[in-house]
């Protein structure tokens, strides 16, 4: 990472620690796990933003990536990743590849990432970035997020990076016993909450609202 980007990344990491601590009243977690911190430090966020936004790559804010989509605020990326409690042997399903930034963060921790993106152009650009960075543990398809990736199920963790009006049962079905899912739920113009879903070893599913958020909607068709 270039020296200027490295300094910005260090500053962002300090901001993330403060933001995570502030959000602890909702999440119950005042610090990030060492695995999540290391992943965030290792992934060069400036590679995943559009050229006109490179100067803002390490600002703690979401940025547009085209097609009505965004690269999520780093604080949200950090919290969502931490809430999944990913183990290094886990297979993780990501709904919404977007720029590929969150995909890369997940790939730093988990054994295998399976990512689904509805916008073909975003999927292609993310694949190119991830390949250039040398990630070998990511599989990606272009498809409908609500469908998940049934052929690759079950998954020990599922992350949904766009807001759904309700919890897609298809995704819950693809969650392994003992698995965790994190998903924003709520209407595009209304209140949204980050929901953490757990499936125990008996197959019982529980839900917990953990944080107010604002995400783009989980779309069925790509915007052009």
Question: TL;DR of this structure?
Answer:
The protein has a single domain, classed as Rossmann fold (3-Layer(aba) Sandwich). 30% of the residues lie in helices and 26% in strands. The chain contains seven helices and nine strands; from the N terminus they run H-H-H-E-E-H-E-H-E-H-E-E-H-E-E-E.
Label the structural class.
alpha/beta
Helix count, DSSP H or I runs of 4 or more residues = 7
Helix content: 25-40%
Number of domains: 1
| Name given to the CATH architecture | 3-Layer(aba) Sandwich
Average pLDDT, all residues: 94
Distance between the termini: 33 Å
Strand order of the largest sheet: 5-4-3-6-7-8-9
Shape: globular
Descriptive notes:
The protein is α/β, with parallel strands linked by helices and 224 residues long. The protein has one domain (3-213): 3-Layer(aba) Sandwich (Rossmann fold), CATH 3.40.50.150. The chain has helices spanning 3-22, 24-27, 34-42, 74-83, 101-107, 120-132, 169-173; strands at 63-66, 69-71, 91-95, 112-117, 138-142, 155-160, 175-186, 192-199, 205-213. Helix 1 (3-22) crosses helix 4 and helix 3 (34-42) packs across helix 5 (101-107). The chain is globular and about 50 Å long. The chain starts with a helix and ends in an 11-residue tail after the last strand.
């Amino acid at each position: 990472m270039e020296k200027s980007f490295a300094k910005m990344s260090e500053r962002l990491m300090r901001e993330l620690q403060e933001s995570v601590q502030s959000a602890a009243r909702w999440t119950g977690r005042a610090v990030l796990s060492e695995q999540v911190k290391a992943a965030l430090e290792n992934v060069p966020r400036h590679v995943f933003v559009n050229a006109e936004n490179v100067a803002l790559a390490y600002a703690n804010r979401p940025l547009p990536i085209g097609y009505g989509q965004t690269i999520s605020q780093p604080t949200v990326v950090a919290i969502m990743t931490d809430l999944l409690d990913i183990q290094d042997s886990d297979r993780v399903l990501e709904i919404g590849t977007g720029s590929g930034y969150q995909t890369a963060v997940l790939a730093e921790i988990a054994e295998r990432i399976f990512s689904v993106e509805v916008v073909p152009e975003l999927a292609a650009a993310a694949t190119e970035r991830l390949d250039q960075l040398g990630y070998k543990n990511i599989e990606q398809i272009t498809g409908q997020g609500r469908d998940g990736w049934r052929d690759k199920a079950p998954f020990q963790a599922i992350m949904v990076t766009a807001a759904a009006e309700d919890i897609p049962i298809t995704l819950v079905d693809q969650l392994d016993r003992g698995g965790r899912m994190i998903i924003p739920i709520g209407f595009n113009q209304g209140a949204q909450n980050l929901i953490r879903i757990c499936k125990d070893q008996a197959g019982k599913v529980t839900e917990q609202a953990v944080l107010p958020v604002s995400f783009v909607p989980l779309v069925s068709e790509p915007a052009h």
